[in-house]
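Morning run. Coffee first, then this:
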Amino acid sequence: MKKSLALFCLLAATLFGFQANAELWLIGAISPDGWNPSKGVQFTQVDENNYTLDLEVTATGNQYYSLTTKLGADANDWNGILPYRFGGANLEVVLNSETVLEAATGDSPYTNFTQAGIYTFAFNVSTRTLKVTLKSNVELPPFNGTIYIDKASIGNIWAWDNGGNYFNSWPGKEISTLETATVNGTEYYSFTYSHNESNPGLIFNDGSSQTSDLVPEDGKVYLYTGGTTVTITDPSEPATTPDLYLFGPAAQGWDPTKGDKMTYDETAKTYSISIAPDAPTSFSFTTKLAENENDWNAIAAYRWGADTDGNDFVFTENYLDSTLTLIQTDQPGHAFAVPAGNYTLTVDLNNKTLVISGTITPVEPEETKVYILGNVAGAWDPAMGQEMTTEDGVNFTATLNAIDNGDGNAYFAFTNKLGTWDEIAAYRFGAVSEGDYWVTAENISDTINLVYGGQTIRIPAGEYTLNLNLESMKLFIGGEIVVPVDTAQVFILGNVAGAWDPTMGQEMTTEDGVIYTANLNAIDNGDGHAYFSFTKKLGTWDEIAGYRFGAVSEGDYWVENACDTIALVNNGQSIRVDVGEYDLTVNLNEMTLVINKIEHTITGDVNGDGEVDVRDITTLIDVIMNSITDNPRADVNQDGDIDVRDITALIDIIMNS
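And here it is:
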């Protein structure tokens, strides 16, 4: 018995994050370094059990923080300090009262600081109690004044003080709707602070990016054009408008150091530039250029492009003189792809719009011919392609042998001319689509609209009939898509075996080649979850590409409720489940998956994580100290009571396991 209790004391001391002469820090909103696990304000150790800290707190209201006996390796090392943190979810440390903190928790407590001052934080190790008291007042100067915002600014302004927020909800007030004021002959948007509270603050944001917290500077002019930075000047200085550059193949190529500067119209507040590409080209915009050709990060927050789901926007005649939406994005794609022509581009950053006016140059082939370009001949080669048949120079037909490109699909487009890539650039055409146009069993009978400079068409490997009308630029595909189903085997692919390896997987069981079942041990992938999909074949990634299937989802399918029926599809998405044991049932005829979680009860598994270890002792101690009665797993010895005898029984289980 003595041995068990001694071990308990040692384990408890270790779990609570304390050893002899341990150091203690405060991190969080009231720390000068903020929420940074690698930096904090250090307590002074008074004796073996007591620590104290005097800290100036200038921000009133509910302020969150936590204590830790260990600092992290860097500003992102939250997991490294997790076992050493003290706090609690929604736990208020009331002024002048002792509050018991939880150990080894990532949740932070808070204190409602009613006034600025020097506060004393006193922490007792043995009881895990924290007491916060006001030691002395601190007088902070009030802020009263007006700031000005340059009219070239975009986005929103968010402002606050200790009395609350100035606006109803995030992201705040749109800058262009603020009041105006004229200073030194220049009109600005304006915003006035008039209060007697301390700690005022500002944030400028564009909906996707934002500045850091700013302290307002009375009488200053702020210029915000998006991203994470804002320019601050005096109103006596002339306001500057950011330069805007056209970059991409329509300018000097995709090089972050190069771009064609656009002309700014002071009256219209718009930028413009003219281009005359003799072949399909693409472009986007940026308000900043980099100094190094590889430094895309330097302009990431300043790039503007098409409002698409990440692919290029294919511009056609229907969009001439239309208002197109711009978004600020550092993601690939989002370029505007235009055919040969003469254009004037007009950009309004205030309203985030682009207008393309001008004319599209009609493509006049040297000969009335159409070639199918792509892997139909085994490779994308601009000098070779399958010639289509025509009798009138308008309607073209061909039988397409769609060769597997390695993923079960074939890819093709069209051209009126063969040669080098540069020579045929103006003659290539494809689907009107934001990305590859995917032909499926559901849309194979649909008419596909074509355009010069358009996108590649993707179709499952097989044989099809193509009918193309060059005058209306429409394509019809005849044939039936039959997805081959090899019902001999189905494998679970993913980290169930510890890694995503296409040569290995857990084979499922079947009696009829339709219904497949398996017991899945979902292994932690490092984030508390497991990920998997299915394949009918093992091999290299290229070899199994046409045989993989997963969930019908825009991204990883997150299983929230067991027993849900999940729709499956070829080339579908991975499925994410919590760590644990599951029974899986796959129906290949209906392409569905049903997951049932298997619940196990392990004696001593107080926290329910499937293992019996020292973490269960921590949970059990909290159950006993806080008189929690709704955790039946805490009655380790099954005597109907939850008390110190259960701790002894749990320690014996751990020692004898």
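The chain has six helices and 53 strands. Good start to the day.
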